[in-house]
What we know:
This protein has 431 residues and is mainly alpha-helical. It folds into 4 domains: 12-199, Lysozyme (Orthogonal Bundle), CATH 1.10.530.10; 212-273, no CATH class; 281-333, Membrane-bound Lytic Murein Transglycosylase D, Chain A; 343-421, Membrane-bound Lytic Murein Transglycosylase D, Chain A (Roll). 45% of the residues lie in helices and 7% in strands. The protein has helices spanning 12-18, 28-38, 41-64, 74-78, 99-104, 119-137, 140-149, 151-163, 177-194, 223-230, 234-240, 264-273, 292-298, 303-310, 343-351, 364-370, 375-381, 399-402, 407-421; strands spanning 212-216, 221-222, 248-249, 256-260, 281-285, 323-327, 354-357, 393-396. It is globular.
Amino acid sequence: MIVAPEPPPGDLWQRIRNGYAMEELNSPLIKRHEKWYASHPDYVLRMSERARRYLFYIVEEVERRGMPMEIALLPMIESAFNPGANSVASASGIWQFIPSTGKHFGMEQNWWYDGRRDIIGATNGALDYLQKLHDQFGDWELALAAYNWGENAVARAQKTNRKRGKPTDYSHLKMPRETHNYVPKLLAVKNIVSDPARFGLVLKDIADEPYFEAVATARHIDVKVAAELADISMDEFIALNPGHNRPVILQDMSDVVLLPVDKVETFRNNLERTDQRLVSWQPYQSKKGERFSEIAARFGLSSAELRNANGLSKFAQESNGQTLLVPITDEATATEFSAFNMHASAVAEMYGAVRYVVRRGDTISTIARRFNVSQAQLREANHGRTFLRVGQRFNIVLADRRSHRNPGIKATKAKANAKARKTNARKATSM
């Protein structure tokens, strides 16, 4: 029997064009942004090159939700599809979530992992947020303005216009310059994608097929080892898995990694057959006042390597007694990571306490088990609260630390730190 060959995949750019649904906006700013992109062809080409890894997944999700396909292009103006993009307002990832909004939509952020940079989690969170904003404001221009400026800011601007008898649509609201340019910039990108040749631009070809697949890791593994087992470069692995802050992937932080679809079987086969050490890092309890340069030399690292592995400031010279990641020496065996860094204590290393955001399916019992505290301790730290709702913030006071410190002092410190982290500036777009 003769089997017909598989038809070649379609053009993802054309699929995007076919799904456009937003109304045209009468704004001279659109042409201004078109001109800017047209004068930066290398920038546009790099942006579309980065987009090839992520765009199919985003398009699938946008289409599944019945959203206009212009939304799939939003990371172009947020981050230029740079998964490592960070703004001055502490926004991160291709969708540029600030910490508080990321946490509200279930994106864990700790010493090991930043879910705002996770491609799947951040995409789902961004689309959830945009759908919520569209339901609230009734059109996509206002939803996008709220995504950039904040829903309360848009609501206040509408209220002001109502008092003055003015229209409350996007074009008539008084907004910051950045938000005023936000939708025109997206529509300029839309027009460029519609006909790049008209602007003298070239977009990287993207096939209408999955680029990556999620693969279970099952065990702790070095980022470098995972890339080697998949037979891909470190740059490629990090581009697909930008949420990992450290050189070790902990299964408890993210039980999957993203790999190119044509490398999945390679990774699985090599992981099954390998006899090499999967983890080459271990925790080291430094002494207060110990110089980082001396610690680095002791473990065969440069000071820069030690700083990068541990997120240390270039200005920090001495340890404050924190736990550090260092290589496993030939004589030593790997220390169990759970001794210092499994989710709960990782955050405690940073903040002195854990602020957990309740997610769908959570109960007092499951949260208590996750952080290895009793249900009674959990209720005590939250004024006896037992009713849970999605997005609610819960204080976690770790049992192993309560025995060494005054819990009242710790709770006060945690509250102050939490308050400080909430004072984020509004989210800025990243070019």
